[in-house]
Automatic annotation (TrEMBL):
Position of the signal peptide: 1-23
GO-annotated molecular function: DNA binding
Protein's UniProt name: Competence protein ComEA
Gene source species: Marinobacter vinifirmus
GO cellular component: type II protein secretion system complex
Residue intervals of the Helix-hairpin-helix DNA-binding motif class domain: 37-56, 67-86
Listed Gene3D superfamilies: AF1531-like domain
Gene Ontology process terms (BP): DNA repair; protein secretion by the type II secretion system
InterPro entries: Competence_ComEA_HhH, Endo/Exo/Phosphatase_dom_1, Hlx-hairpin-Hlx_DNA-bd_motif, RuvA_2-like
Keywords attached to this entry: Signal
Family annotation (Pfam families): HHH_3 (PF12836)
Length: 90
């Protein structure tokens, strides 16, 4: 009976660990198509900066590289760097 309890505990702990790891994976955001709410989910980007991204995109066309996001007023290279794994351009 001890083996079954130990096995059940190990399975539970493994399930919890992998579940949390999966839950922490953030989705990739295409900065050329994302809406205000999606852009605002980025680290250091609030609704005002998200709207500035959309305005910049509408006035200058789509971004060709994620680094171009730093051209938007109020968004620096550090913010782009912090979000690099979540940013995409398609």
């Amino acid at each position: 009976m001890k083996h079954n309890t130990l096995l059940a505990t190990l399975v539970l702990l493994f399930s919890l660990a992998t579940g949390f790891a999966y839950a922490n994976e953030a989705e990739t955001i295409n900065i050329n198509t994302a809406d205000v709410a999606t852009l605002a989910s980025l680290n250091g980007i609030g609704e005002a900066k998200a709207q500035a991204i959309i305005t910049y995109r509408e006035e200058n066309g789509p971004f060709s590289a994620t680094e171009e996001l730093a051209k938007v007023k109020g968004i620096g290279a550090r913010t782009v760097e912090k979000n690099a794994e979540r940013l995409a351009v398609e």
